Amino acid sequence: MSLYMENLEPHSTNNMKRTFDPPKKTSIMCETCLNLNYSFERGSKRLPYMNNGDVNLRHIEDFTKSAETCHICDFILQAISHFNLASIESTTVLIGMKQNKDVTLFFPASYDTIQIYTPIGHPPAWEGIVTGRKLSSRPDSQTAPTSAYIPTRLIDVGEPDDAQVRLVETGPLLQDRYIAVSYCWGTLGIFKTQTWNYEDMKSGIQIITIPQTIQDAIRVTRGLKIRYLWVDALCIIQDSASDWEIESSMMGSVYHNAHLTIAAATSESVTEGFLHQPHLAAENKAPFLTEWTTPEGERTILGARMIPALTSHTPSLDDETPPLWFRGWTLQESNLSRRVVTYHRDELWWSCVGKSVCECGTLDRFHGERTAFSFWSFYSIKDPQKAYLDWYQLIGEYTQRQLTVTTDRLPAISGIASVVQEITKSEYIAGLWSDNLLSDLAWQSAIIATVEDASTVFPLEEYRAPSFSWASIEHKVSYTRSLRWVSTRSCTVLSAGAKVIGQNPFGQVHSAHVTLRGRMLETSLEVGTNRLGNRDAYMLAHRRLLPGVDTALESFEAINEDGLSEWSVRRSSAQSLNRQLVSGTPVFLFYIGCWRGVRVQLKENDHRTIHAYLLLGKSPTNMSKYERIGIVEYEFAMEVEDGDISESLQGLEDFSEAVITIV
């Protein structure tokens, strides 16, 4: 496998078909293939296609009829035959064309995609057609300048033929480029630096004893003529709590200042490697190539090749997702890097501050739309509000990922948190931001619609974060509605803060609190039948609202500050012997603000809005304080004055003023 992005096939023309001599430049358009050029007027069978492009529906027989008079249709027909894509079940072909002149043919029956292109080194068959590309490794990006930052330790990869590498302590005198690697450790015991072998690692490490993924990273580093490599398992003393805490807090800087980050996306374990896994091009039939004549009369090559499906470039976490994207730590590793080369299942991908591209050209077609590995750098953000919104999106992605050590929930994104703080100047409180706190409190857990759904979702056994933080639960959370958050003067933050365990201000927390002044209602939580009448669901006595609970819940009894026995509701531990919610147990609704609705206005200055309430129970460890157990939404119409939500008490008539502390 090449270390760089090469064109996917050699320049050999042994499999060339007959030469096509299309007409000179003309305004005449073939109604079937549309000349595979977006600049022509599109036909009547046009379908909407992403941004700045079209999808046009055709059938194989359309190309058969048109091939007698159109060279491009003849080429398409031969390409279909070459790849055996003619299907009895479906003859549908979708021609995708973008303003950047990228052209693809999609076959719904087989879910295959063909790209029309000119191999690199040949004149373009027509203006703007995709060409095979080779990306330079030179550090010439003005938006990602070389940095003088050097990590505490690096791996000296030595010369290309050296049989060993060694761990070096950098010190102030070592100022050189280095490469970082992002990979999956796997479940097996990993080769790592520890206190007992630290001096041996500095003396030298036989490459043959190193796991394959790290061996491959060494090979790439040497191939790029760079001397140093950073690997977390080797450059952090793994059995030293103090060293791990200090070095892990610097990982944001490590990846951001690396000359390049290698992302070994396809390997589930460090033992698998990434350089010898076959790509899609190795499995598919060779590209269809033919001699062609450009509109200017130059001889060139026109090709058609199979490329990875569009879905492999779009956000999702499913069975086809590369293992690296399931790992929690790797999200900040990619987001903070200046340049990333990803060894993907089907091809190589390249991302930098300036652009994200892949060998097949699909990433080019998105033009900034969110893709599975689009470069999303917080370092390019200047506006605090933009930083908060991107933080929400990141949390949604991050909480889908897995962590081997559950207490890493906050440390694993501490590097990004430090960058967001540089932008916002806001205090960090266990995953939330003091200057945006009310909106930050309105996170939502994965949909738990019934008691049965909640029965398998439990809080952590050990303390990791306060109940008001998304980091306190184990499953996916969302800030989707917060993109339309509207603050209100009915709720104010009096104080908030967190105490961290060690030296990393963005790492593990020992305790945290938020004190709010606002409007609160005591009600009760019941178990009743859901609206479909077929399953048990949590339900509030107030307006029969259905709350979104964070985890399984249970009733408990404790002694309050007055020395009296009091019942309340808490998150239910998997180890709990009780794990039963008694209908009618008291809970509390605390109003924190609202989301602007998207429905049509009922009348002038009227908007559909959604009230947000924290669902709270008393804290089992201190009954004078509260803990979050869920969130509640209530939709209604309210007036908007000069763009601001009015202070109408609609929906809050039964609520009373209160000052509370949530832990």
Topology:
Layout: E1 17-20, E2 46-48, E3 53-59, H1 60-66, H2 71-82, E4 92-98, E5 103-107, E6 112-118, E7 130-131, E8 153-156, E9 164-169, E10 178-182, H3 198-203, E11 205-206, H4 212-223, E12 228-230, H5 232-235, H6 241-249, H7 251-257, E13 260-263, H8 280-283, E14 288-293, E15 299-307, H9 330-335, E16 339-343, E17 348-352, E18 356-358, H10 362-366, H11 384-398, H12 414-424, E19 428-429, E20 432-433, H13 437-440, E21 444-445, H14 451-454, E22 477-478, E23 485-486, E24 492-500, E25 509-529, E26 536-540, E27 548-549, E28 553-559, E29 565-571, E30 585-596, E31 606-619, E32 622-641, E33 644-645, E34 656-662
Domain Heterokaryon incompatibility: 178-333
Protein name: Heterokaryon incompatibility domain-containing protein
InterPro entries: HET (IPR010730)
Account of the 3D structure:
The strands form six sheets. Strands 23, 24, 25, 26, 27, 30, 31, 32, 33 and 34 form a ten-stranded antiparallel β-sheet that branches. Strands 1, 2, 3, 4, 5, 6, 7, 14 and 15 form a nine-stranded mixed β-sheet that branches. Strands 11-9-8-12-10-13-16-17-18 form a nine-stranded mixed β-sheet, sandwiched between helices. The protein folds into three domains: 17-134 and 284-312, no CATH class; 153-274 and 317-378, no CATH class; 384-662, no CATH class. It is globular. The two termini are 53 Å apart. The chain contains 14 helices and 34 strands. Strand 2 (46-48) and strand 3 form a beta hairpin. It is α+β, with helices and mostly antiparallel strands and 663 residues long. Helix 1 (60-66) packs across helix 2. Residues 178-333 form the Heterokaryon incompatibility domain. It comes from Aspergillus nanangensis. This is Heterokaryon incompatibility domain-containing protein.
